[in-house]
Design goal:
Mean pLDDT: 86
CATH topology of one domain: His-Me finger endonuclease fold
Organism: Micromonospora saelicesensis
Distance between the termini: 106 Å
Low-confidence stretches: none
Number of strands: 11
InterPro entries: Endonuclease_7, Endonuclease_7_sf, His-Me_finger_sf
Oligomer: single chain
CATH architecture of one domain: 3-Layer(aba) Sandwich
Radius of gyration: 35 Å
Pfam family, one: Endonuclease_7
Number of helices: 6
Protein name: Recombination endonuclease VII
Length: about 230
């Protein structure tokens, strides 16, 4: 079978632009023996756009909407319509070029709207996503604690504490108590040793004369420095 005139040594001539290009630069076509079409990819895309515009005009009587030209290193946000640098778009590994579709203000606004529509607010979304409970369960646990922080007993607890190994919620604490447990790695042994350490080294008042006290350590240590 003679070789087609537009094929030559693994190359093909595009029937639109006339350029000789490698076969991998042509669009796939299962009806041809080599699996490649007659038009290079850029020409094929131009033909597809022209065909789509023609069908749209014939069937709906309107023209294809022309998007404004976007400079290099920029992107157009489809929500606000502004053209901004890529740094104004959030990072997204699955997005085109590693950036999200919407600019950061529009991205944040859409996120808040979705959380409000699906979960009733950002707090409910945060509790559900991170701890698996909602505001209702939070208030029930707070009532069981008497409305105060589970460790220090202070008012207005806000931080939900959970076991990092099992994910189970343990109680509602303040920021300092919650962070303290994390610093001690939730280890009862470390916490017990810390209590023993404090009891043995904390400076206490000792009565040395009626009405006269002296700060001293029951075991070891040195007196606090004096400021002049």
């Amino acid at each position: 079978m003679p070789r087609p005139l537009d094929d030559r040594d693994g190359h093909r001539r595009c029937r639109d632009c006339g350029e000789w290009l490698p076969l991998d630069q042509f669009c796939a076509n299962s009806r041809r023996p080599d699996g490649r079409g007659s038009y290079c990819k850029p020409c094929f895309n131009l033909r597809s756009k022209a065909s789509y515009a023609k069908r749209l005009k014939e069937r709906q009587g309107r023209d294809v909407r022309q998007l404004p030209l976007v400079p290099a290193g920029h992107r157009r946000c489809p929500d606000c319509g502004a053209t901004k640098p890529l740094d104004d778009f959030p990072r997204n590994r699955s997005g085109r070029g590693g950036y999200g579709r919407y600019c950061k203000p529009c991205h944040n606004a859409k996120g808040k709207e979705s959380k409000l529509r699906l979960h009733g607010g950002t707090r409910e979304y945060h509790l559900r996503r991170r701890y698996g409970v909602g505001e209702k369960e939070f208030q029930e646990l707070l009532a069981e604690q008497g409305g105060v922080r589970a460790i220090c007993g202070g008012a207005d607890p806000q931080h939900l504490d959970h076991d990092h190994r099992t994910g189970w919620v343990r109680g509602i604490l303040c920021f300092n108590c919650n962070g303290g447990l994390g610093q001690f790695r939730d280890s009862p042994m470390r916490l017990a040793r810390a209590i023993t350490y404090l009891r043995g080294t904390t400076w206490q008042r000792a009565l040395i004369h009626p009405g006269v006290y002296q700060m001293c350590s029951p075991t070891r240590g040195r007196p606090p420095s004096r400021r002049f």
